[in-house]
Design a protein that fits this description.
Length: about 170
């Protein structure tokens, strides 16, 4: 593993449904010099005839880390329960590309890890986002399910195209 000189974003692969638990352990074990994020998204879900807002993980099984990676931190991360591996190629740890982070930073709100619900209206054959994290990202929307209140959005993450469902709210044209 090569020594990294500057801060970068890395991705930890962890056991499913253990992301928050691993994040808390990481914060106490590794220290304040690193930032740990488990990106979540808000979705609207209908249960017992009522609409509720729920939170789901954006990338289940992954924790994002920002900091300087060195051999000591690498082995400290490997010893933490629930951590499967740090994503890497043959000889070096993979970093998250800035272009991929730009879209995530637009989507994620100020508290650093949640994607809220966007408001939109139908305009001719397309959609117009009027508020929320999807504003300006209309080109990345693949499909909209008006009944469920969700939009399928294409994101690049770790050099792969991933389709994630984000919450939407359909409003009347203003």
């Amino acid at each position: 593993m090569n020594q990294q000189e500057e801060e970068a974003w890395y991705v930890l692969f962890v056991c499913s449904n253990q992301e928050e638990k691993v994040k808390k352990i990481l914060e106490s074990e590794v220290g304040d010099a690193y930032k740990f994020i488990v990106p979540t998204r808000e979705l609207r879900e209908r249960k017992d005839g009522k609409w509720n807002t729920i939170k789901r993980k954006l990338f289940p099984g992954y924790v994002l880390i920002k900091g300087i990676m060195n051999i000591d931190v690498y082995y400290k991360l490997k010893k933490i329960p629930g951590v499967i591996k740090l994503l890497s190629s043959e000889d070096e740890v993979l970093t998250v590309d800035e272009s991929e982070l730009r879209v995530l930073k637009i989507l994620i709100d100020n508290d650093g890890n949640n994607i809220g619900i966007s408001s939109l209206y139908k305009e001719n054959d397309g959609v117009k986002i009027v508020a929320g994290p999807l504003m300006g990202l209309e080109g990345q929307i693949i499909k909209i399910d008006y009944r469920k209140g969700r939009a399928k959005v294409s994101l690049r993450f770790m050099n792969e195209e991933r389709v994630v469902e984000l919450g939407i709210e359909v409003v009347d044209k203003i």
